[in-house]
Design brief:
Blueprint lengths: L2 H10 L21 E6 L3 E3 L12 E5 L5 E3 L9 H5 L7 H10 L4 E2 L2 E5 L7 H18 L4 E5 L2
Parallel strand pairs: 1-5, 1-6, 1-7
Antiparallel strand pairs: 2-4, 3-6
Length: 150
Amino acid sequence: MSGDVAMRALGDNFPTPTFEDPAWVTPTPLAQAKVAIVTSAALHTTDDDRFSQGDTSYRFVPREARDLVLGHWSPNFDRTGFTLDLNVVYPIDRLEELAEQGVIGSVADRHVSFAGNQPDDVATIRMDSGPAAAAALKADGVDVVLLTPV
């Protein structure tokens, strides 16, 4: 059995939530949508507090920020791609190009970064800091997020 087939079979047995009255919305056309990045690269500006081990909070990343710190604390984390090109984990320049080309409506003024290397507590992100970050982006008028899991 190939790895892909095995993983799909494993996923078929995972419990999934059932929502009695799921929300349904008609999305904004992409050419009119404001897009933000949500990354788990633990990015932050040099002025922000660093991410600590097990940190379930988030940092806002200003649209214009390019001198970012990658805050993963594991010595095994390969930083080569990030070092060579920020867009590997935070494709802000690609979003700017898409906006210039009219593919997307606009780029959000701020984006969100979480520390993705969570040992145990993803529930706090799922139930607390994640919804808070989503509410902030929604208040900013963001229509679509591009998730870059790292």
